[in-house]
Amino acid sequence: MKAAVLNALNGRFDVEDIDIGSPQGREVLVQVKASGLCHSDLHLAETDFGIPLPAVYGHEIAGVVSQIGPDVSDFAVGDHVVASLIRFCGHCFPCLDGRTYQCNHPEETLREPGAEARLTRDGAPVEQAFGTGGFAEYTIIHENQLVRVPDELPFPQAALLACGTVTGAGAVINTARVKTGESVAVLGVGGVGLNAIAAAKLVGAGRIVAIDTQPKKEALARKFGATDFVNPNDGDPIAAVRALIPGGVDHSFEVIGLKITAEQAIKITRVGGNTYMIGAHKPGSAIDLNVQEDLVQDQKVIRGVYMGSSNFRHDIPMYAELYLQGRLNLDDLISREINISEINDAYLELKDGGIARSVITSF
């Protein structure tokens, strides 16, 4: 089958023919119908996060169940599904408490060490990043990483629910629990940021400030619900936000993963405000924090967020229904649909900051 394989940490994927096995135990073979190009995969393709190479990335996946393992109970051949990189065992305390994103035993969704690899090339194992490996025609995924979605949900839109939506919207709805009338700032108007803006609008936030260095992002941000737009290239974004909202915002969401934007996100919140760190930072990265001023005196809360604090088996069907009702905009998240052979050019476009998402829909 065709797959985009990362062979070196150079940010470029090689489209090759590799082999895929048969589902075992609780595994499901999924024919990939759409696979979103999330910026996180590009970040991982350029930085050493300890993932063995060669590897197949891709974690925004929608497709159709093609075959099931002998112990699968939740899915049948023909089901339309979305995959998640959230891996959960289903029996530890966080899982039983609904916090599957904090599972203590995510390794239970993978094959035992030394077992036959799901993916191989010339007989040698190919790593399947996060247990998903969606940059391929087919993928084998544990049933605990899958959720069924309505057949009428288009595959490209369904794929974006897997990460961009659960991460951005989830941070607003699940983690921050933004209340009607509260003010919000989102630093970074990519796929995750746009979903955060859309969710802030959905829950009735009063002021929604989008912050990005790309002027072309303003129209898109406002389309998703931003009431204001700040371009850091035009001047100090902290001063600009505080000019719009004296005292600062109630909630700020940093979705870029840079030191400078993380520190700005803290500074633009009010006394007692909340900052949520969502963007993927490089291993070992740090930020400067004035403990007395920011934490003690101003009583601010700084919280890391993983996958929007999402129980995806609950949240993805909810977002799918909101989309089908016309209440959640997924259509404008899709910049274009591409063939897998175009993956590197599409990532260059994403890196340039001019688009929201490209989605692989053909192989």
> How does the major sheet shape up?
7 strands, mixed
N to C succession of SSEs: EEEEHEEEHEEEEHEHEHEHEHEHEHEHE
In which range does the helix fraction lie?
25-40%
The level-1 CATH class of the largest domain: Alpha Beta
Strand content: 25-35%
**What is the name of the CATH architecture of the largest domain?**
Alpha-Beta Complex
Straight-line distance between termini: 9 Å
| Average residue pLDDT | 95
Quickly describe the structure.
With 363 residues, the chain is α/β, with parallel strands linked by helices. 28% of the residues lie in helices and 26% in strands.
Give the secondary structure arrangement, pairings included.
Elements: E1 2-6, E2 14-17, E3 19-20, E4 27-36, H1 39-46, E5 55-56, E6 60-68, E7 80-83, H2 93-96, E8 119-121, E9 124-128, E10 138-142, E11 146-148, H3 155-176, E12 184-187, H4 191-202, E13 208-211, H5 217-224, E14 228-230, H6 237-244, E15 249-254, H7 259-267, E16 269-277, H8 291-297, E17 301-304, H9 312-324, E18 334-339, H10 343-352, E19 357-362
Parallel strand pairs: 5-9, 12-13, 12-15, 13-14, 15-16, 16-17, 18-19
Antiparallel strand pairs: 1-2, 1-5, 3-8, 4-6, 4-10, 4-19, 6-7, 7-11, 8-9
Structure description:
By secondary structure, this protein is α/β, with parallel strands linked by helices. The protein has two domains: 180 residues, Quinone Oxidoreductase, Chain A, domain 1 (Alpha-Beta Complex); 143 residues, Rossmann fold (3-Layer(aba) Sandwich), CATH 3.40.50. It is 28% helix and 26% strand. The strands form three sheets. Strands 4, 6, 7, 10, 11, 18 and 19 form a seven-stranded mixed β-sheet that branches. Strands 2-1-5-9-8-3 form a six-stranded mixed β-sheet, with no helix packed on it. Helix 10 links the parallel strand 18 and strand 19. The longest helix has 22 residues.
